[in-house]
Here is the input.
Amino acid sequence: MATDFSFPDAAAKAAQANLPKEFEPEKMSLSMGPSHPSTHGVLRIQFELDGETVTKADPVVGYLHRGDEKIAENMTYNQFVPYTDRLDYLAPLANNMAYAIAVERLAGLEVPARCQAIRVITAEMARVSAHLMGLGAYGIDVGAWSVFMYCFEEREKLYRLFEELTGARFTTSYTRIGGLSRDVPEGWTGRVDQFCDQFMPILDEILGLLTRNKIFIDRTVGVGVISRADAISYGLTGPNLRGSGVGTDLRKDRPYSGYEQYEFEVPVGAKGDCYDRYLCRGEEMKQSIRIIKQAVAKFPSGDWYAKDARRIFAPPKDKVLTSMEELINNFMIVTEGPQMPAGEVYFEAENPKGVLGFYIVSKGGGVPWRMKIRSPSFCNLSILPKLCVGNMVSDVVSILGSLDFVMGECDR
Amino acid sequence: MTTDVAITTAVAQQFPSTTPRASLDCPAFNVPAAEALALLQYLRDAQGYDFLMDLTAVDWSAEQSPRFTVVWHLYSSTKHCYVRVAAACPADADPAMPTATGLWAGADWHERETYDMLGIKFTGHPDLRRILMWDGYPYFPLRKEFPLAGLPTEMSDAEINEEIKVGVISAPMAGGPFVATPGEPMSEAEPRAKDEAWNEKKEKPE
Here is the structure.
C-alpha cells in the first residue's frame, strides 16, 4: 500500500474518511514568545494552528511599558535626547539625528555644513551597524551561525569608532538640538575612511555566505511575500517597503541634513519576499559606505553648532564659570529648558528600520505638549497577522527575521 | 524641503467646511469629524497621498473643549510631500472618531494604539483592543491627568492578585528622571522627584 506523504486539508481528509466528529482534527493554539530566541525581543505571537500551518496569528506587543511619549511630555527638549537612544537601540545615532532635526525645525534653527556632514556620517555608520546586526541575527534564525560572528566583528570596529567619537558604545546621545555634543576627534575621519576600505571586501564575503546558500534560498525565496499594494496600505517603510518594489527613500525624496550632495542608489526589490528584503539590506550597506566615503572626502570645516544655538545649548564651562550672563543663561536652559515657539511640526527621517517620525505639538516653553513618535518597527509589525497565515511555523521564523524589528522601538 | 502649495486651494474648493490649521511645516487642515474620512479618501485617491504615515491624537487637557484632536499625517510617494489633517472629537467625555481602516490597513494598529493610550473609540474598527497595555487596564496613560509614574492597579489576572495581594504598583520616582512641569512658576517647575508611589521614607507595600 502506497503511503500518502502529502498533507491535504486535515478537516477535508477526516470528512472523507467518515470519521466521527470527535476524531476531527482540532485547531491548536500556540504562544510563541514573549522570550523566544527568534522573536528578537519581547514579542509574543498567539497562533492558531492547523497541524503545522498557521491559520491565525495575533501579535501581542507592549511588554516593555516604557512610555517614552509620556516621559517626553514631562521633560525639556534637551533632556529627551538620551531617551531617543533607547528607541531603536541598534542605531542610536540615527535616532539622535532624527529627533534633533525635528526640534530644530520647530525652533527654526539651521545647522552648519560640518555639523550636517558629521550627522550624515554617524547616521550611515549606524545604518551599517544596524543592518549588520539584522543580517547576523537573521543568519542565526535560518541556521547560519558564522554570518553572525563575521557581522559582529565588523560591528565591533564600528563601535570602537563610536566610542572614540561619543564616549559611549551603545547609548551615544551624541546630537544636541542645534548641533552636536562635541566635534570629531583628531584623525577620526581618516579612521572612518580606513574602516570603509577594509569593510567592503569583508561585506562581500559575508553576503556571499548567504546569497547563494542553498539552505538560505530555500528558507527565504517566495516566503512572506508582501505585495506592493499591501506594503503601501500597511504603511511599511525602509527595506521592508523597498523590498516590495516601492522605491521611496526620504534621503532621496526629501533630503535633510545635506543628503542631496551625496551620490547613492536606492536598492529596490522585485518580488517582496524575505530574500528580496535581505538583498535590499545588503545593498543598502554598500550605499551607506559610498555616502560615508563621499562625506569624509569633502569634510567641511567650520562650526559644528548653529549660530543662534545659544538659547538652546548650555554655554561652554569656562564661560559659565567666569561670566554672570552665561551663568544665568546656563541656569535657565537647565531648569526651564530651551524656549520654543508654539506650533506643530512633523519630521521623518530614513532610519535603518524604516521611517522614524516625530510629531511635536508645542504650546511654547521648554516642554513639548505632545510628542508622538512614529516608530518604523511598530508599523512594520502590523502586517504580521496577514503575512503569517498559510505559512508553517518554521517559515514564521524567517518572516520575523526578515522584517528586522526592534521591540524597544515598537513599544516605545 | 518641498511642500505642495496647490493642495490648500484644492481642498478648500472640494471641502468648504475645512479650515487651514496653523502649522510650521506641511499644509494642514482642520476638518469636522463627520467629514474626516471623505477628506482622507479624497487626498488618497485624487491627490496621490498614498501613505498613512501616522495617526495619533492630542489631549488638550480636561479644561479644554473640544478636548481631543485626532491627527493624520499623509505622505505622497509621487509628490514627496506631507499633509496634516486634524479633526476634533465631538464628545469630550466619550470621544469617538470614524475609523480609517477601510482606507489603509495600517490604520488598524495606529487606531488601537490611540485608543489604548488616549481612550478615543474608533467607530467601525474591526478589532478595537488594547495593544500596548494589557487587557483590562483601567486607565488611558497618555491623558494629561494621568500621572507620569502611573497609578496603582489590580493585576489583570484575579487569581494572581488573590495570591500575591499586591496589584501593579506605580513606578518609583525618587532619584528617577529629571522631571520639569510646563507652565508653572519656576519654583514649582524645578526638576525634582514627583509622583512618588513609594520611596525611602514610605516603604514598598508588602
